[in-house]
Amino acid sequence: MSIYGDYIKSVIRTVPDWPQPGVNFRDITPLLQNSAAFRKLIDSFVHRYQEMDLDAIAAIDARGFIIGAPLAYELGCSFVPVRKKGKLPFKTISQTYTLEYGQAEVELHSDAFREGDRILIMDDLIATGGTMLAAAELISRSGGQVVETAAIIDLIELGGSQKVRDAGYSVFAVCSFTEDE
Q1: How far apart are CA 1 and CA 133, in angstroms?
Q2: Fewer CB atoms < 10 Å away: N or C end of the chain?
């Protein structure tokens, strides 16, 4: 957790029973609307990664883009979108992953990375870990090296961050939530 983790967590809104009964949705909109909180969020990532010699931030569609782009700018590295299937205009590679009720697919431009590029994967939250692991697989297949996976929120009870660790990747989250918070 970052030095601003408790503050960032306090700005995130919990919307009970959305999108379905029994689910607590963690809404980052208030965090994005609060300029001081958003700055602290980006600073949390900058402070963590400024000395890691990254070549690129691979941000996952779509909320990962919101954090990944300013972070790439601040770190002086490239920004690479990992998109939902059918959204990229050039030659792509794709990876299917399992959702709670089905499957989804993410894609990456086939020329996104050079062999050995050091990549940070960024998303807004880690839930079941499927999207993060699919992005990591794409990056590995394209020759990149995943240095770490990162998110604003870790929903620890869903087990995704542990799955990502079990697959051999380091995980960083600014804050975490349990279901009863």
Answers
A1: 21
A2: C
- Cis peptide, bond prior to residue 19, ω within 30 of zero: yes
Residue 36, judged by CB atoms within 10 A of its CB (0-12, 13-18, 19+), counts as exposed
Do 58 and 121 form a contact (C-beta atoms < 8 A)?
yes
Q: Residue 171: helix, strand or coil by DSSP?
A: strand
Model confidence pLDDT, tens digit, residues 150-179: 999 999 999 999 999 999 999 999 999 998
Report which residue type is found at 20. Answer: Q
Structure tokens at 29: 């909109």
What is the per-residue pLDDT across 35-65, written as a single tens digit (0 to 9) for each? 999 999 999 999 999 999 999 999 999 999 9
Tokens in use for 158? Answer: 């869903």
Domain ranges in the chain are 53-177
Within a 10 A sphere around the Cβ of 116, how many other Cβ atoms? 9
Q: What gap in Å lies between CA 57 and CA 123, rounded to an integer?
A: 10
CATH architecture of 53-177: 3-Layer(aba) Sandwich (3.40)
